[in-house]
Amino acid sequence: MAPFIIRRLFISFFVLLGATFIVYVLVASAGDPRNALLESTDPGKANKIAAMTRNLSLDVPIIPRYFAWLGGALGCLIGKCDLGNTASGAPVSGGLAVAMGSTLRLVVFALVIAIVVGVSIGMITALRQYSGLDYSVTFLAFLFFSLPVFWIAVLMKQFLAIKFNDWLKAPSIPPWVIVVTAVVAGLIAAGVVGGDRRRRLAAFGGASVAVALLMIYFAVTDWFAEPRIGPVAMIAMSAITAVAATALFAGFRSRIVLYATLVTAVVGVICYFALDSILADPTTLLVVGLLVLALIVGAGIGAAMGGLYRSQAVKACMLTAFGCGGLIFASQLLAALPAYSAKVNGVVVATIGATTPNFSGNFWETTLDQLGHLLLPTIAIVLISIAAYTRYTRSSMLEVMNADYIRTARAKGLTERTVVVRHGFRNALIPITTIVALDVGGLIGGAIITETVFGWSGMGKYFNDALKIPDPNAVMGFFLVTGTAIVLFNMIADITYGFLDPRIRLS
Amino acid sequence: MTVPPTTPPDDVPGGSVYGPAAEEATELFQIYEPPDGAELAAARGKSISSVGSVEVLKVEDLTVGFPTEDGLVRAVRGVSYSLHEREVLGIVGESGSGKSVSSMAVMGLLPKGARITGDISFRGTNILSMSKQEQRSLRGRKIAMIFQDPMTAMNPVYTVGFQLAEAVLSHEVMSKKAAMARAEEMLNLVGIPQPKERLNSYPHEFSGGMRQRAMIAMAVINNPDVIIADEPTTALDVTVQAQILEKLIEVKDAFNAAIVLITHDLGVVAGMAHRTLVMYAGRPVELGKTEDVFYSPRMPYTAGLLGSIPSAGETGRLRPITGAPPSLINLPDGCPFSPRCPLATDICRTVEPELAPTDAPDHLGACHHWDRLAAAPDPTAFFRTESEARR
Amino acid sequence: MSTEEKAAAAASAANGNGNGNGNGTAAQGLSIVARTQGQLVRRRFFRHRGAMISLTILVLVILLAYTSIGFAGIPGWWIWNYYTPGKVVNRGAPTLSLWPTFLGGDGFAIGEHPFGQDDLGRDYFALTMRGAQISILIAFVVGIVGTLIGVIIGALAGYYRGWVESGLMRFTDVMITIPILVIAAVLGQKFGGAGPLVLAIVIGLVLWTGLARLIRGEFLSLREKEFVEAARALGAKPTRIIFRHILPNTVGVITVAATLLIANAILLETALSFLGFGVRAPDTSLGLLVSTYQNAFATRPWLFWWPGLFIITIALTVNFIGDGLRDAFDPRQNRVRA
Fold first, then answer.
1. Which of C294, C333, C337 sits opposite A150 (nearest CB)?
2. Which of A279, B37, C33, C314 has the CA that lies 20 to 30 A from C94?
3. Do A339 and A280 form a contact (C-beta atoms < 8 A)?
4. What is the C-alpha separation between C272 and C278, in angstroms, rounded?
């Protein structure tokens, strides 16, 4: 393993070196950053031009300038980073660090959602190949594939932010919305469940009635005016989480795992009542600590009760604990919503920036503020990347489910759940992981367009602004980070491949 | 004509072939010493006599069709057979003759779109009318299957031990450790040396023969009543083939299981099966005791198959069946074999013959002219090649 | 004897054998209809409903875009052009009406400016058509340039191995390391003003990397196949083996990848134009139109809807055609056992 990594690093280093040269020469010869100043009528423009010439060493020819830059950049290897100054004289590394933090906040969250949802949808459509659900999802995936981000962003700003905020001021749910939502939910449920006509009808009926009742409840109690997760909802949703976690990891052949997750859920509900005072205005550290504690408690319950099914029980209980923790978190957030809404004049879903300027509030309110700003760009990124993951997972899963060892697994008499998850998904995961790793590397570069549209001052915007000048030092700083990320994640992809597929021996 | 017997590799010393397995020598192994020809015959006589009278598996008038863009592919059209305890039934036919499809129907492993009619009963209960859950609990526990290509039939990302243990755990509640112990015992039984270490190997670290042994172990780990072996030796070296077949018989005797042996290799059937079923174009065309089918075929297709085998002793020419099997979507009128049959007459091209008793009541054939075959001294002679005819 | 003659001789010999053995099976009419690979692919493609609908729509859109306002000096049938400002009528609202009278609408009418007018009073239908022309032109040029470069580099790397391969593939790695948008934006900055065709060629020079890797993989596996061995044994030159023997076997992969490349190029062009690195005024593209009028959405939404609709239609149909082609060339994925 070590020689492999070292060789890869060695090659990657030279690949990156070549790439920096190309990018530097391209950017430096793309235009003279002083042009804008030359045309201005600013009285102090001679001084400014001189300052910019000094900042960017514009008096030096391109090739020596590149090597001067390279010398500074190579210093990063020994801890003495010098990426030069931007056109305005600020050090590149400082601005870059800020932009990177901002981008990571946006991208990581979105990517996690996109992967989880995209992979799940891909799996379901593969298992229900050539069903109505499959065709609908395929169509939607292609549609999202074909959407320009900036176009959908404008629509989202209009309908998910401006119109939604207006609606939230006086929320009322018209009957046709209830009917449409219920029918759509029913159709999705029927498609996911599959099977014969009776089973599908039952799923359709069950899901649509449940959703309709829920919506009617929301409408009658005016839930959106003062949203919250009440005790009854908490108990019901914890129980559902427990059952779902059991179904996912163990199935119901043996009751032990179900009992363990239900006990975990009960602990979760008790916490819901007990932790109110602690969670009034917690620190981030406390919240993270509580989450870790919840996972530990879940694992403990699973290990204690699991018996012969210990490993499954531990996983299922940890998931249940995580779910209950999430529910408590959500309930606290929702409780803080009216106060927050009043503070920001009803702009709950923001259209631009990363935070409301000059906003201050307690933990829940600042969290709401960040989430409100994250919502639209996250949806934009998720919509666009989810399509790719769905398609990849679907085709990868289809290929695997045709393999001989799936037939063997069925012939052994394994349950369909085990066949699909343990034998199908585990193998389909190998190519998916590679693609995900490569994508993560690419996303560090920031979603240039998304950031531009939503006024998110991350890497993409940093690059875009720098390129417009054009400012070689700033662009190179950006490229150094993204290029390294791509190279690194390329390698991580190879290494995970080796771990996931025992046939590959890295050497 | 002669059929090449599947001779076990008697030049290999018994102990080393089976490794420590033979030394730890459960009594199962003592029944079956690597035999020479005479012993083999004796052993066969013994196992034939030991065939039970209870029917474990009964297939009646099974048909399977697959709807495709071009029309319904009628892969199996009316297969009936029964399998008794400890019996070995050979099913022979070309690819596409429906032999694998019919056994996949027994396992309940056909794709969702397949149209299945008829009866498949296991010890008197109809499998086709069972719930999915009941079918699943039968699979791998009472009816197990061994697949053709050991290369691809095992999941590459799990250890062999895990995949064996999984088969036990899916039917019985026990600890993983106990299941692994059982897996080790099985690997030992099928003659894999150092079974304990091998449990943690991945399939790609096994040779083809070893993998097929592991597949056998996986099939018998739940002590099944019926083992369906779908071309178990096709993908293997000839020398390894014999060892695997030996092992299969040995394991069958150890577990009192019956075997449905699907193959296109007549030699394999001749060496192992009590009875043989010949299939052509989705239909059974001959069924009888193996020696009856081989020495006095009552269906020209069987005779043609026998004529196509090269044998070591004879220097005569091969007598292949000319032409290709018919399309299963658009079958010819009458006997599906008639376009390739040297004996075909007008009736063959209009009326499809039923599988009916011929000269012996337990020797069934589906041919209008079985009596002409019976009258000929060498049935394969009907398939003389043109060059022979010119001579 | 040339290789063709040898092949023909071999084929006839095989035929003779076949006749001897065949014994007239064909005469029995057993309906085993032989189909060539090409026929099978075509048949499967024509049965892919999504792809066929998409192909029809795409052809209609292309016809509409290029005939309506004319192209390269050839006049079209549409009365307005995309560059002459006019008098803004009714705030430039669209006059197109599709809502029939019996449903309470105005009946079917195209009107003076079916897509409306922009703030200079230019006909928005003509502008949108011009944008579509440029976007389609760029997409297809990128597809051709990118595919050509990708195939050549991939084929050379895959066939010759050794230092040729490592050199070419490291170069590909370098190009992959530079994010596509980055390099296209830099080049677009430099060449964007030089007209859409130059811009397209520049983007094509960037977008070939994925295809090169794909083709290299195909070549690596195909060059070990027996038929290549046979060609080599007959003394065929490397160029002949590459172009006559291996390349035809990668047609499926190339076609699918090229289609998806075109779909990518459409979105990349719109993104570049949106960021200001692509097509520049006074010429226009769909991306530029959306970008220009994104803030007009609340007041004059048609300026935003029409170009967006055309971007989506073109990208969506190309994607679906790519999907149909993939299914046609690679039917393995079509059916799942149980």
1. C294
2. C314
3. no
4. 5
